[in-house]
Amino acid sequence: MPNKAFSKVKPRQPALPVNEWVYATLCELILHGEFVPGVTITLRGIAESLDVSPMPVREAASRLISEGALEVSVKRRISVSQMTQEKFDELVLARLSLEPELAALALPYIDSERLKLLIDIDKKLDVAISTGNIEDYTKYNCQFHFGIYEAAPSPVLLPIIKSLWLRFSPFYRIVAGRAGTQTLDDYHEAAIDAIKAGDPVALAKAIHEDIEEGMDMLNESIGTS
Predict the structure, then answer these.
(1) How many Cα atoms within 13 Å fall on the side-chain side of residue 100?
(2) Whether the predicted pLDDT of 11 surpasses 50
(3) 179-201 pLDDT, tens per residue?
């Protein structure tokens, strides 16, 4: 993982335990594509970069390994696992099955403040696409989706979907980077319109199409990442 990734880490709030901060930090870096599949780093290296003891890093890494986001080598180096065809097919199936449903469940809980936030994120995403900024595209695409999902009181679906993104995002970052942002489309405007209209069916459809769009591009890249 490049050192510059750690320069983007948000400072820990005093009320947040160190172990939770380390876990949340590593999750955010993975979700935003800062961990490149196959590139390894030591637990000690992460601890030094975050200026914490090895224990909370070890705990966070164990959680992420159990969630399938990371894997560990015999030399105790961790990395994002490589994508396989079998894993990809199941991830796509799971995302298409769960995310539209959670978006529909979240709709009644999306207030005007959250809607304004989603519109702002989508504007930043449009800028990232028009300027070819893959880093911002990956970050804001993630923020848009979870800006919807996290509105729902979901103790089951939300953690599952988060684990799917933890496995998917690093691979997506690489492939999107190769293809360039000009090849990327999204259905976020349709999702925003559905939210404004209070239409859960249209929102689920927009999220389904947004996930489905580009899957062929990703599928063709398996084995070359």
Answers:
(1) 21
(2) yes
(3) 655 556 679 999 999 999 999 99
Using a 10 angstrom Cβ sphere, with 0-12 exposed, 13-18 middle and 19 or more buried, the burial of residue 207 is buried
Report the half-sphere exposure of 122 (CA within 13 A, side-chain side).
Answer: 18
What domains appear along the chain, each with residue ranges and CATH number? 3-79 (1.10.10.10), 85-221 (1.20.120.530)
Handedness of CA 44, 35, 133, 142 (dihedral sign): negative
Encoded tokens for 84: 């396989």
Separation of alpha carbons 169 and 29, rounded Å: 10
Amino acid occupying residue 97? S
Q: What are the helix and strand counts (H, E) for the chain?
A: 10, 3
Q: How far apart are CA 32 and CA 26, in angstroms?
A: 10
Q: What is the pLDDT of residues 43-70, one digit of tens each?
A: 888 999 999 999 999 999 999 999 989 9
CB 124 within 8 A of CB 177: no
150, 162 contact by CB (below 8 A)? no
Cα dist. 93→48, 58, 99, 159, 185 in Å? 38, 31, 10, 17, 20
Query: Is the distance from CB of 61 to CB of 40 less than 8 angstroms?
Result: no
Rounded to whole angstroms, the Cα distance separating 170 from 178 reads 13
The span from the CA of 194 to the CA of 66, in Å, is 36
**Residue 47 phi, psi (nearest 5):** -60, -45
* Alpha carbons 46 and 53: distance in angstroms, whole number: 10
